[in-house]
Amino acid sequence: MIQGSMVALVTPMTASGELDWQSLATLVEWHIAQGTHALVAVGTTGESATLDVDEHLAVITAVVKQVAGRIPVIAGTGANSTREAIELTQRAKGAGADACLLVTPYYNKPTQEGLYLHHMAIADAVDIPQILYNVPGRTGVDMKPETVLRLAGHNNIVGVKEATGDLERARLLIAKAPKDFLIYSGDDETAVELMLAGGKGDISVTANAAPKLVAKMCELAIAGDADAARAINQKLMPLHVAMFVESNPIPVKWAVSALGLTAHGIRLPLTPLSEQFHDQMQAALKAAAQ
């Protein structure tokens, strides 16, 4: 079972937008030392939308090799083409990923039946643990709880990253899904409450900049220590908020750079964090470090 703080890892780039392999290795080692429980390579935060297929798979392979089995690696392999998602998932399995994260098909706006058939096709084609990823604010399509519950019966579909921030929906899934089906938060601000309700982790943006605190918060929340987990979450709240003052991963890439871990590299059409938000981000980083 993969649980706890699962960092939605940024993909380090140089100022010109080229992949920065040394910084990627440094980030992996830093997260392991800080107590991160798992790494998600090339999800939304990893700029999957602007990496070509070769780069996408090269980053997954590099993370797997650097981790060397010390913690699980979850590969982002979703696509709005079912055939492409199957290929990416097959190749991530071949690279040694422990599981795959599959975002709902974006832009083409499939029906609920289309979502069901899409994910069933991938699960039938590739024998690797697969985590559904529902983030309608980015994809334009919402995978309804009844569709998630239909998919939860497949042996290869092991959980869902629910990024709506809707705690009632999360509680419904926790209550009705098979007991071995894992409900993860994809919304840092509400992650503690989801875990206290029975969720098993947070696929976190904030953890890129405060991995030790997020890992401890997740451990406490999963163990049911509500007061201690909420106290850490309150300390992290300014950082949770600052991470979304502009489109993810713009703020988090600036934060990781401000911590001296990577260069200021991001690819168009995304742009560096607007100067008006720099003070807010610095204050949030400082609050989390105290």
Automatic annotation (TrEMBL):
Q: What is its EC number?
A: 4.3.3.7
In alphabetical order, the GO MF annotations are:
4-hydroxy-tetrahydrodipicolinate synthase activity
The record's SMART domains line, in alphabetical order, gives: DHDPS
> Does the entry feature the keyword Amino-acid biosynthesis, yes or no?
yes
Q: In which pathway does it act?
A: Amino-acid biosynthesis; L-lysine biosynthesis via DAP pathway; (S)-tetrahydrodipicolinate from L-aspartate: step 3/4
User: According to UniProt, where does the site described as Part of a proton relay during catalysis lie?
Assistant: 44, 107
Q: Gene3D superfamilies annotated for this entry?
A: Aldolase class I (3.20.20.70)
Active site residues per record: 133 (proton donor/acceptor), 161 (schiff-base intermediate with substrate)
In which family does this protein belong, per the annotation? Belongs to the DapA family.
Task: Report the function annotation for this chain.
Answer: Catalyzes the condensation of (S)-aspartate-beta-semialdehyde [(S)-ASA] and pyruvate to 4-hydroxy-tetrahydrodipicolinate (HTPA).
**What is this protein's name?**
4-hydroxy-tetrahydrodipicolinate synthase
| Organism annotation | Simiduia curdlanivorans
Source organism lineage? Answer: Bacteria, Pseudomonadati, Pseudomonadota, Gammaproteobacteria, Cellvibrionales
This protein's gene is called dapA
